[in-house]
Amino acid sequence: MKFIKDRYKILKKLNGGSMSNVYLCIDFDKDQEIVVIKTFEWNDQTSSELYKALFNRELENLEKLQNKRIVSLLEKGMDLENKLNFIVLEYFKGESLNEVIYKGVFSEKQKIKIILDILEGLDYAHSKGVIHRDLKPSNILIDESNQIKIIDFGISKLKDSMYKDFTVKNYLTPKYASPEQKLLKNLDFRSDIYSVGIVIAEILLEREFEFEENIIEVVKNSELEEHFKNLLLNMIAKEVKNRISTVSELRSRFQEFNKKENKLYGIGFADSVLKRLCQFGYLENESRSEASKLIANDLSKALIYMDNDNNLRSDQNTYKIYGKQYEYKCVVDKRTDTTFTIISIHFPNKSQHNSNKEWAITHEGEFEVCISVTKDNDFDNIHDLISNFELEYRAKKLKNDQEISEKNSIQRWEKVLHILEEDIEVNKSTLQYRHFEVDSLGEKIIIELKNEISEKVFDDEQLLCMTSAYNINRTKLAGYCIDSDGNKLIVQLSKDASPDDFAKSGEISIDRRMIETALSRQKKALKSIQYRELSNPRIADILLNPEQAMYSDLFIDLEYASEMDESKQKAVEKAMQAKDMFILQGPPGTGKTTFISELVNQIYKENPDSKVLISSQSNVAVDHALNKIKDMLPKLSLLRIGRKDKLSLGAEKYMIEEQLSELIESIRKNSLEYIENLKNQINMDETLINKYEKILEIDRLKGNLEIIDTKILDTQTRLDIIIESYEELKNLNYELEKITHSLNKETEQTDDLELNDISKVFKEKFISFGNQFLIKLDKAKNLSADKVELENTLIESMYKSDEVQHQLNETYSYLEIEDVEQFYHLKKEVNITMQGNQEELEFISKIEGIQNEWFSRIGTDDKLLDVLIKKTNIIGATCLGISSLSYNSEVVFDWVIIDEAGRATAPELLVPITLGKKIVLVGDHKQLPPILDKNIQNLDLQQANIKLKDLEKSLFEELMLNINSNCVGRLEQQYRMHPAIGNLVSKVFYEGMLESKTTVTQRDHGIQKWDGKGVVWLTTSNSPKRHEQIIKSNSHQTYQNEFEVNIIFNKLLEMEVEYASKKFKKDVGVIAGYQAQKSLFRKEFETKYKDKFTFLNVEINTVDAFQGRETDIIFYSIVRSNDKGKIGFLSDARRLNVALSRAKELLVIVGDHMSVTKESTTFDNLENPFLKVYEYINFNESICTLEEVL
Q1: Are 572 and 556 in contact (CB under 8 A)?
Q2: According to DSSP H, which parts of 747-819 are helical?
Q3: Judgement on whether residues 1030 and 1175 belong to the same structural domain of the protein
Q4: Residue-range definition of the domain harbouring residue 476
Q5: What are the pLDDT digits (tens) for 640-689?
Q6: Number of H helices and number of E strands within the chain?
Q7: What is the pLDDT of residue 774?
Q8: Three-class secondary structure of residue 438 per DSSP
Q9: What pLDDT, in 10s, does the model give residues 883-926?
Q10: Can 134 be counted among the known catalytic residues?
Q11: Which of 231, 424, 589, 1131 has a CA that sits 20 to 30 A from residue 1153's CA?
């Protein structure tokens, strides 16, 4: 037997009893959780009833018992194939108590702790009416931290059990069974007390009793302390009536013994406490003796509940102590400096008291309440207790603050999304256009605007809509703006858009539905976290408290498909072992995509039916991962969701549209072949069959046309009624003009009396008219909307009518008939000829009709998409892009792997997280922070007391720094950069932990002047032309530096000459932190340098746009150069990290080194990262150089 119920894979058989088998298993339905399964076989007819009773009894007992000292029941069931019942228990990694208690490894205090834990579990079972009946060391498990679990309730007795008529009295362990149990008498809880007494005696004596040994004599003659002897003898008395009657009493007795091992602290009380006790009626008089007894009784327990008191104004630290009923405020006694003094006492209600105690820190120990405390005492020093308390209190507060911070983060983002939603309602970017032209391929339109625009209104992520050609009151989706200049926009048309859809002049605006959809997706994700409505609800708890992340320490032996260094192998292993979430930090060039592809390989080796989502904030990252996975695992099916124009080269084949087309074509081909085979079976003249089918097609089309024409007539009638109502309103308006004209005429050259009469008549007429107007207006409230809807319905119906008529005309032409008479004559003639085969042909024709109807609809709804999704192994999409799928498809992913997770905002990241059972986040919090949408950056967030900087805090970073260390990994070898660059990045940004696995020879850039050098700083510090230029734009200012632009292009021209002589081709990235500098570079390139580079492929962009990218050579323009050493946002080490880590062979920094290293700290009091860069270059002259440019 390898599986139980095709769900639980058996790893190995464990030690079990004679009545059941016990196995260690993997649960494939719960992320391969390790479980223990106990089976009760019933293949032997003579014992099947017994096993059934045992199963039901253990099941009934375990369902009643939910306690941390008792193994938990997870599932139950029946396996018909293997003929057994089974129960699934939690896996508790430990060993049986009998394997450790005889070895002398426990101290006296540890023994008492183990005994108390056993008694706690047994006391709970008894409180639920359950008698265990088989307590022995082998039925008690203990782990490395000495936590225990009681197991095997197979023959336990439930007092109100529905199975009490069925006996299992013969199943017992004689050595531990009570005398009455051996005699098969009825049992009560004292039978368990006898058994646990034997177990406790073995624990305390560290020896195993022989079966026939006189245990009572052994205990009497042992060297145990008298109080232990007496208690044990009371537990194992032969006569039931002589035994201790309850486990609760036993626990109290052992707790008393335990107290002797605890710390003892002295505590006194002030006179004000005495007076307060009298004031509230707890004491009859101010007797310190009576007061000390009352307080001692309240504090008499083996645990101290302690908390900070932040409300009392005092020059001393004040602490709260919680008793059974009362709460005490204490300070260190100034006279002794080693004891507490109670300075205040409070009497809360029970619920409030219990609530307060939940937040307290507990310590083992007790207080001795003194009438008066002297300096000469034997108490333990109270400062030891305070020190331990302070440590635990700070840890708990940090954890609590973090949970509050996470909750606040969700609330903060909810507010932002709400403000953004309101802003969209108010501000809608709309431009008027007078004309547009279509490019030669019909894929783009060039729009001429009525007015010039000074800055970019639409970005390439915003879906645009334009005025409809069929109804000027409506818009249709157009596409995305890919470029703009002056009064021209270039729009890349969407897949379903046609230039004929749009009016030649009209309006173009952002499609609000797309923004609203993105907002809705993020809001839904936030709500899912709050209300635990995720595919894996445990993820929500981990997000609020990352330490809760769990892992399995079960050894796994992996065989890797790719060659990987030790840090990658370790990361893959830890990802597989993580139960719910794994976080991986991947510094630049460390091969995060290799990790992802190898992880996917291991996932499918373990479970070939897994469904995996590959996601990222970046389209490039998604495509790169999918291509790498496909190279490694070519048989896996991949699906890509997203815009075709945003996909990387080679990723189009994974597009959902491409694969849907292939699937539809495959279905169409198979369907047509099926019809053709049916026709061939009839064995008739094919021309005659075709004629018969066309006649049936005409009949169907004519029926459809009749239905459509009826709808047109009905729509036109309703539209005429609305138009008539419009005419009535026009007439009313005409009447109003007549009244006004009449009033003006009559008031000319009249005196006041006449004017009054005219006014009176006018009022009467106007009131009468007004009533008519209001009645008509009330009826016409929704006329405009109804009119538009009916007009659209009419247009669509007429279009369908024309389409059906066109199909009819084509069919008539095919049959070479011109009128209805010819049609009916042909129909009669064909029917006569077809007699005998008519039934079969009608059947085929009906199938063909259904088939054609289905062909016309196939792909227009989500049903086929659902089929495609279900058969696909891996789906790739951006964080927000995936939700367009999830709304229509009930898809849950076994694994969600998110690359560049540090760049996504919290709501963006949560969208894919909510869809997965197991989450893997890959990123680097030491690179760029989350990208905030332009719409968010432009919001006025001060009203909600929110700062943009708060929103840039990465959820990835929060998890990375706080998650359980077993659920986090870091890649430590980089394979991208020249050693000079790699070591620079390692020293400045990663505390030297990043190891370069490349060599100077492997990354030789071929520039003779800088042979062997990987990092070059061309400094402008001594040039009079070095200074930055301030560029003001609307409400903000940016910077550019013309001198640095000239330097970089001159160097590029020199490189072009040298590479041309060597016939080398290189990719070069020119990057800067400022948009204005990027624009200046591009302008100069387009106007002066574009045609001068053959061997250099030059790309110009911002630092932010280059994250996740790499190229042979990077020129980094610093831009900032001023006398004060101000560097603005360049001080962000994360952005500088990205800038310096893009190059594979050569990094050239261009700018004023003296200016950017002038200040040792940044505006937010962090270390200036340029100082370390400059220091590294100076100390590594063999591979780096600093050159002056004048």
Answers
A1: no
A2: 752-779, 783-815
A3: yes
A4: 429-510
A5: 887 776 666 667 777 777 777 777 777 778 877 777 777 677 666 667 77
A6: 34, 41
A7: 47
A8: strand
A9: 776 444 568 899 999 999 998 888 889 999 999 999 999 999 99
A10: yes
A11: 589
